[in-house]
User: Which sequence fits this backbone?
């Protein structure tokens, strides 16, 4: 991948960081997500919350049951973007099998841009699931559109405020180097729309793909909900002085670094999600904001402890059951639960009183 990117720079001149990140992650067969290397799990570079426990799928399943009732208990589409190994989909469906009326009326659709990941999903998911290339292939949706750790992997524009907003470009002169050019109008407009004024010297990322994605989702959702789960903040928190170097991070072999010009094509590159932007551009396209909550609050609202106790009671070894309970409580209420946030939006239905949004948990 490094050689391919260098050749592109030689032929066309410096490229935007956005285009550099896009090639690193999604270049056909050679990008991080399009190659055959393991990405998720012990042999990969990171874990997702659904790899740790089926609790995530069960709690989302509980919320989906309420959403199905709100939409009228008719045919219901669950659409997941970027399903990874398919584990979250599997856990949601396993939970919903207990609700025969709902299970018989639902179809689960996966939109997966990585052929390698889609092949892994097909090995695990044998019923109720269909794969799509685009949400447009489905037509108007009644149901719920889900993304879990998706938006943080969209390619972003890096910017820095000097006398005017500048965008980071990537050149190669023996090594990869960054240089600044005046920012395009659409990047300036992004900050203007959110009423964000960056102080001089402030560096951050702008995720235009996220605004395009939520606009597309809003247009195609006819009646129902959108659940977005990810690392990130509201704009008021994202642009604090403490984050004046941005939020870009790389994951390689279960370690975190801030070196996007290393391990090219062999490490994940992410940036934190601006949930205010998703809410703003969703509203511009007809999506109302139901609520915003961290994952710990979402779990508590949906009765995660009662569900977990039911699962652990099936295990004969009470000592192992207690250890698992303690581990999952720490992970989902503290470690992961306060790092992941959840934005729920709705269209064509009431959505402000959803069960999963009722308990707010402050960060430690």
Assistant:
């Amino acid at each position: 991948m490094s050689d391919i990117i260098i050749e592109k720079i030689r032929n066309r001149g410096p490229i935007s960081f956005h285009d550099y990140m896009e090639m690193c992650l999604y270049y056909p067969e050679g990008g991080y997500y399009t190659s055959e290397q393991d990405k998720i799990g012990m042999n990969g570079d990171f874990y997702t919350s659904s790899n740790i426990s089926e609790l995530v799928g069960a709690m989302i399943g509980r919320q989906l049951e309420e959403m199905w009732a709100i939409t009228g208990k008719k045919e219901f589409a669950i659409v997941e973007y970027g399903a990874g190994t398919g584990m979250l989909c599997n856990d949601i469906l396993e939970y919903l099998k207990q609700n025969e009326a709902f299970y018989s009326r639902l179809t689960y659709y996966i939109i997966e841009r990585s052929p390698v990941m889609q092949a892994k999903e097909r090995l695990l998911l044998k019923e109720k699931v269909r794969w799509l290339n685009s949400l447009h292939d489905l037509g108007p949706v009644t149901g719920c559109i889900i993304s879990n750790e998706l938006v943080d992997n969209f390619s972003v524009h890096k910017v820095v405020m000097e006398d005017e907003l500048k965008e980071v470009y990537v050149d190669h002169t023996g090594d990869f180097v960054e240089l600044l050019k005046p920012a395009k109008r659409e990047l300036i407009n992004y900050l203007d729309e959110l009423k964000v004024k960056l102080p001089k010297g402030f560096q951050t990322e702008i995720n235009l793909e996220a605004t395009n994605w939520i606009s597309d989702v809003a247009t195609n959702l006819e009646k129902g909900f959108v659940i977005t789960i990810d690392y990130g903040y509201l704009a008021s928190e994202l642009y604090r002085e403490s984050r004046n170097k941005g939020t870009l991070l790389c994951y390689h072999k279960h370690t975190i670094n801030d070196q996007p010009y290393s391990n090219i094509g062999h490490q994940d590159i992410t940036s934190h999600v601006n949930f205010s932007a998703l809410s703003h551009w969703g509203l511009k396209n007809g999506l109302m904001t139901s609520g915003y909550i961290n994952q710990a609050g979402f779990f508590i609202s949906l009765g995660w402890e009662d569900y977990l106790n039911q699962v652990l009671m099936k295990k004969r070894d009470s000592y192992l059951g207690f250890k698992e309970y303690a581990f999952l409580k720490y992970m989902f209420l503290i470690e992961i639960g306060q790092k992941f946030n959840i934005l729920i939006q709705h269209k064509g239905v009431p959505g402000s009183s959803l069960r999963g949004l009722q308990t707010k948990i402050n960060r430690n």
In short: The domain at 2-357 is CATH 3.40.50.12710 (Rossmann fold). The radius of gyration is 21 Å. The CA atoms of residues 198 and 233 lie 16 Å apart. The chain has one domain: 2-357.
